[in-house]
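TA notes, week 10

Several of you asked for a full example with nothing omitted. So below is the full record: structure tokens for the whole chain, then the designed sequence directly under it. When grading your own attempts, check the secondary structure regions first.
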């Protein structure tokens, strides 16, 4: 028995040494690209363990891009953290050696926010997937960085509570904090900014802070600077979010969904504005143009009329739902809309909203091999009809026939989805010019160049125009205070 135990111990130790040697050998093979010394790789292995470090091309490639059209920019080394302590120690190592550090959640972003533009270390947080606590009586929970929104809502299913922020993709919750995500439910529940109570953040030098104080989870506070919302939307440029304390909401008593179509985009958007101006407490209003509807029909096996359409969702008690729906139907009818097509049972309703969430993939399926380019401008509600119509006119004038429009129009946010051939430079330049034009129209109407995707790589110039020179100077001063060596996700938000 002793010999067998000794043999197993020797075998395990040999495996560990072999794996460590393989990692270092793989790193040596990519050293011409990496420019990171073996001693640094070894130091990272010592922190996170043999099985949590990779310098292989496949893993680096996987961590060098998100869902956007941007070319892959792989890091030199990928490490997987299993605890906040791991994150802290790796951050300190990167800071001491001045190695760029890029946090990685689930890779579902659309602005190149995880591309390693200067190489360095990509820190994957997906193994930090514990739901730390759920306080049902207080309507809040605390989760680690790798927990995704679908995982969280499955966990909450028996509590009668839900986390309603829904960007479509099964994004990691802390990644959603980093980009200030929102989605289809924002008209009722707001964005991540309104639903994050506290965060644990590892600073670039390895220090750990709790943005509202350790363990605090009150619904409001007047204590000091609002550090929580400073890090929400910071896109990994100020620190690494390792835990988030979130607001939860009760699951409504009843829910129904409906679809209606219009003759023109103007009629659909006018209906949206009028519904909101009436103060109807609607849960979701989503707009799809005729190109999007056609893509949905083909990809998700629907049979909607190919015309500008609105998706509605009403929530509340059965009595209030009927009253809400009647008022909305009257408004739709006044604007030339069709009768509602109802989806009241959960299966039909879920199929309808899944089709809406899959619109990105539906549009890409119309052009196999393409990559998505999505705008995400947001304007005050009263400016929504003008920005949508002017954007559509610009697209038609440019001769682009396969661009589609969808929008969380209940909060003034809409997307134009372009499918592009990344090998065709002329096509990319045309689409970039159109995206800039749409963003400038939005900003002209007191809106923003990004309602939910963030700045990342693609909108740095637009941010300069939106915020102005003084605003940008203040942002850069904040960046220099938190990250004086400039290691955190370099090349994002600012030009460097």
């Amino acid at each position: 028995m002793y010999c067998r135990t000794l043999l197993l111990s020797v075998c395990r130790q040999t495996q560990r040494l072999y794996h460590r040697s393989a990692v270092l050998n793989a790193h040596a093979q990519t050293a011409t690209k990496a420019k990171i010394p073996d001693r640094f790789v070894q130091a990272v292995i010592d922190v996170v363990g043999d099985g949590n470090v990779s310098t292989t091309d496949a893993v680096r490639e996987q961590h060098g891009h998100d869902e956007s059209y941007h070319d892959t920019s792989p890091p030199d080394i990928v490490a997987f953290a299993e605890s906040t302590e791991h994150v802290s120690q790796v951050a300190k190592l990167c800071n001491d050696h001045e190695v760029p550090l890029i946090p990685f959640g689930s890779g579902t972003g659309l602005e190149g926010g995880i591309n390693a533009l200067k190489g360095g270390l990509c820190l994957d947080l997906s193994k930090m997937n514990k739901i730390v606590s759920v306080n049902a009586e207080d309507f809040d929970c605390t989760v680690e960085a790798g927990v995704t929104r679908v995982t969280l809502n499955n966990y909450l299913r028996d509590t009668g509570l839900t986390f309603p922020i829904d960007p479509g993709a099964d994004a990691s919750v802390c990644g959603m904090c980093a980009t200030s995500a929102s989605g289809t439910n924002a008209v009722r529940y707001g964005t991540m900014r309104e639903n994050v109570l506290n965060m644990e953040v590892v600073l670039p030098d390895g220090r750990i802070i709790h943005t509202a104080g350790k363990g605090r989870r009150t619904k409001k506070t007047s204590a000091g600077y609002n550090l929580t919302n400073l890090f929400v939307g910071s896109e990994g440029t100020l620190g690494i979010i390792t835990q988030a304390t979130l607001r939860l909401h009760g699951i409504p008593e009843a829910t129904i969904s409906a679809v209606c179509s219009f003759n023109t985009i103007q009629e659909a958007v006018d209906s949206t504005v009028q519904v909101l101006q009436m103060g109807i407490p609607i849960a979701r209003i989503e707009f799809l143009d005729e190109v999007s509807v056609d893509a949905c029909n083909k990809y998700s096996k629907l049979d909607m009329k190919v015309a500008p359409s609105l998706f509605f969702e009403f929530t509340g008690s059965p009595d209030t739902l009927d009253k809400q729906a009647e008022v909305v139907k009257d408004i739709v009818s006044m604007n030339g809309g069709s009768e509602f097509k109802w989806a009241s049972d959960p299966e039909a309703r879920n199929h309808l909203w899944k089709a809406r969430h899959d619109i990105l993939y539906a549009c890409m399926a119309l052009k196999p091999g393409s990559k998505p380019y999505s705008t995400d401008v947001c304007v005050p509600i009263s400016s929504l009809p003008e920005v949508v119509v002017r954007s559509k006119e610009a697209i038609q004038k440019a001769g682009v026939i396969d661009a589609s429009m969808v929008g969380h129009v209940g909060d003034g946010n809409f997307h134009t989805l372009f499918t592009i051939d990344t090998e065709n430079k002329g096509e990319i330049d045309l689409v970039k010019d159109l995206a800039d034009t749409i963003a400038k129209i939005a900003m002209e109407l007191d809106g923003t160049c990004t309602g939910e995707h963030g700045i990342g790589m693609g909108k740095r110039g637009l941010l300069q125009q939106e915020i102005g020179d003084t605003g940008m100077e203040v942002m850069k001063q904040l960046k220099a205070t938190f990250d004086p060596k400039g290691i955190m996700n370099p090349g994002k938000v600012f030009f460097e």
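The CA atoms of residues 277 and 381 lie 9 Å apart. Use that as a sanity check on your answer.
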